[in-house]
Amino acid sequence: MPIESVVPDGVKLEGLLENVGSLCWGAADILRAYARGEKPPYGFPAVLNVNDGVDGPVSAADLAVNQWLLDGLNSYYPTTDWTLLSEETAKEQLIEGASVDTEWLWILDPLDGTKDFLQGTGDYAVHLALVKGSKTVLGVVLIPEADELWFGVRGLGAWLENRSGEKKSVSFSDRKSFSELILVASRNHRDDRLEKLLGSLNLAGTKSIGSVGCKVATILRGETDFYISLSGRSAPKDWDMAAPEAVLSAAGGMFTHADGIPLKYNTGDIRQAGCLVASHGFLHPEICQKVLKEINFIDPTFLV
Q1: Which of 19, 33, 148, 244 has the most CB atoms less than 10 A away?
Q2: CA distance linking residue 159 with residue 273, whole number of Å
Q3: Residues paired with residue 51 on neighbouring β-strands, in sequence order
Q4: What would you report as the CA-atom Rg of the chain, rounded to the nearest whole angstrom?
Q5: 228 near 153, Cβ under 8 Å?
Q6: Which CATH number does the domain housing residue 18 bear?
Q7: pTM, two decimal places
Q8: Do residues 126 and 220 both lie within one domain?
């Protein structure tokens, strides 16, 4: 994809990355303050409220970071022809079965891994992804507790920045034999079907991590090699997957359905249902083939 096509007309990519980075570090300060029971910056309320409703835990931290990101992007780009969609605003913005009528769409998750945030594990992240049509062109994953800010731009690659602006390259592992692979899986969203699938793969090891962004970061650092998302009672949504998928894909990895079909966004269905596989890319077809075979044996009715 030509570099000039990853941002709308009138937007300079370098400036956009700088502005988004600044917003992300502000979001990190907000979340870390809430996580420690301290007064958050920028005038946000000090009390952490938790509402465990049908959509899961929602905290004041979600809402604060959501406002911070939306206000920030609107302030930096008041007239740019794109639409901002976040997990916290989706109910008001989306019409069931209809895509958002825009060529350029930001998909934001102000706090991915809310349960981990509340449990104090540190495995939570902030996701920002820019989508053109139905495909990601830019992704940003912030991991506040690790002071990690991952960027990925289609056609330019992916990299890691710290608060000082120092950059590091992606470091995929060199494990290329299936029996050597290490899998990263969900800590909180597991069911018997997923447990059976993981047990059938005969891997070198597994890690359990919260946020999807944190999971994908373990692949980018070379700590693990692939991740499986298997829909249970509910499916992950566009905002769970878009930014991590964008960064991993820009780095040269792969993030697809188990049958190899790429992920798409803004399709009128925000669910990323089925069996999704993310990997460093070296054995992606082999991983998908093996996962498909096992899931078809475990549950022949499951739609990947």
Answers
A1: 244
A2: 28
A3: 58
A4: 18
A5: no
A6: 3.30.540.10
A7: 0.94
A8: no
245: nearest Cα among 173, 172, 114, 138: 138
Single-letter residue type at 248: L
Q: What is the token pair recorded at 267?
A: 């399709």
Task: Give the whole-angstrom CA distance, residue 294 versus residue 289.
Answer: 9
Is residue 256 within 8 A of residue 284, CB to CB? The reply is yes
119-139 confidence digits (pLDDT tens): 899 999 999 999 999 999 999
Residue 304 lies in a domain: no
Domain endpoint, select from 137, 169, 201? 169
Both 41 and 161 in a single domain?
yes
Residue 262 bridge partners (DSSP): 256
DSSP per residue over the chain, as a string?
--GGGGS-TT--HHHHHHHHHHHHHHHHHHHHHHHTTPPPSTT--S---EEEETTEEEEHHHHHHHHHHHHHHHHH-TT-S-EEEETTTHHHH--TT---S-SEEEEEEEEE-HHHHHHT----EEEEEEEETTEEEEEEEEEGGGTEEEEEETTTEEEEE-TT--EEE-------SGGG-EEEEESSS--HHHHHHHHHS--SEEEEESSHHHHHHHHHHTS--EEEEE--SS--BHHHHHHHHHHHHHHT-EEEETTSPBP--SSS--B--SEEEEE-STTHHHHHHHHHHHHHHH-TT---
**Three-state secondary structure string covering 142-192:** EEHHHCEEEEEECCCEEEEECCCCCEEECCCCCCCCHHHCEEEEECCCCCH
CA separation (Å) from 46 to 39, 60, 62?
5, 9, 13
